[in-house]
Design brief:
This protein has helices at residues 3-10, 12-28, 34-46, 51-68, 73-88, 114-127, 142-155, 168-181, 199-215, 234-243, 264-272, 293-300, and strands at 102-107, 132-136, 158-160, 186-190, 221-228, 250-254, 276-280, 288-290. With 301 residues, it is of the alpha/beta class. The protein has an 8-stranded mixed β-sheet with strand order 3-2-4-1-5-6-7-8, with helices on both faces. Helix 2 (12-28) packs antiparallel against helix 3 (34-46).
């Protein structure tokens, strides 16, 4: 099964929710008028896209409908897809990992699928011929290191780990040294699941970033925030909290196969101007891919 088919199957709950509601509007209205657009705006808001983003989409859609004289259902859907895709493409969606080595710092709260995402990203990069080292810098939970080691082994990546409770920044320092010794292409750094109200954990994150910036000054760096797609609008507040502590370059959205709230992806990008770089729609190691906005909107509408 190709990734688009996986995405389409995984996004079924979101797609069914969207399509059913949109189709019901067409049954209720004989023409695409202001009442129709008001109903469509409400659907977007209720689909976790968010108030401001939904209003913006409908305003753009209204202009296009008048200018292009759009009348039938499929043309309205296509215009809606295009307006969503414009939002998803407003930021730089490309991965910048051109130096050797490059580094990916992965952050996010507990329970969002951070560790499994690291394993899947490592696997994706390994399939692209990259030699990957993973740093187990979540030293607060022994289970986190064990879980990461399992995923790293599945992906064929080397792992650098230390005993529980050790300073996470020292693990990162050791991992950078080993990455250089092994002439690896990419270092992926796991971090503890930080809550935005836990100041000491955010301070630890800043310390890790300082080590990376000092020891890998010339390296390309991606800071990826992992977001649980099932959390809906709460995900937007998580992004804003982490942006205050880290220069987030991209998002990894997980668990979209288990929710009808996939529309939140559009709202997150619109409100934060941070691109989605990876998307997960399953539990297997191959169930993650570099984000493609066109495939995404086709999969939900």
């Amino acid at each position: 099964m190709g990734f688009f088919d996986k995405l389409k199957n995984g996004m079924n709950k979101t797609k069914n929710s969207f399509d059913e509601k949109i189709n019901n509007i067409f049954k209720s209205f004989r023409k695409v008028d202001e009442d129709f657009l008001d109903e469509l705006e409400e659907i977007l808001i209720m689909s976790d896209i968010g108030m401001d983003t939904s209003v913006s989409i409908i305003n753009n859609l209204r202009t296009r409908i008048k200018k292009e004289k759009i009348k039938d259902e499929e043309d309205v859907k296509q215009a809606l897809r295009e307006e969503m895709q414009k939002i998803l493409d407003i930021a730089d969606i490309n991965l910048h990992l051109n130096t050797k080595p490059s580094v990916i710092l992965v952050v996010g709260v507990n329970g969002v699928g951070k560790t499994t995402s690291i394993g899947k990203i490592a696997n994706l990069l390994a399939k692209d011929g990259k030699k990957v080292v993973v740093a187990a810098a979540d030293t607060f939970r022994a289970a986190a290191v064990e879980q990461l080691e399992i995923w790293a082994n599945r992906a064929g990546a080397d792992i650098v780990k230390r005993e529980e409770g050790i300073d996470p920044a020292s693990v990162v320092y050791d991992a950078i040294k080993i990455t250089k010794e092994k002439n690896a292409d990419i270092l992926i750094v796991d971090t503890a699941g930080r809550l935005h109200n836990k100041k000491y954990l955010m301070d630890e994150l800043n310390k890790i970033q300082k080590v990376i910036n000092k020891e890998m000054e010339e390296a390309d760096k991606e800071v990826l925030l992992v977001i649980d797609g099932t959390t809906g609008q709460n995900a937007i507040s998580q992004v804003k909290a982490f942006r205050e502590e880290a220069d987030i370059t991209g998002l990894v959205i997980t668990k979209l196969d288990g929710t009808a709230k996939g529309g939140v992806a559009v709202g997150i990008v619109s409100e934060n101007n941070i691109p989605i770089k990876f998307i997960g729609v399953g539990e297997q190691i191959d169930d993650m891919e570099i984000f493609n906005s066109e495939d995404f909107v086709k999969a939900i509408i």
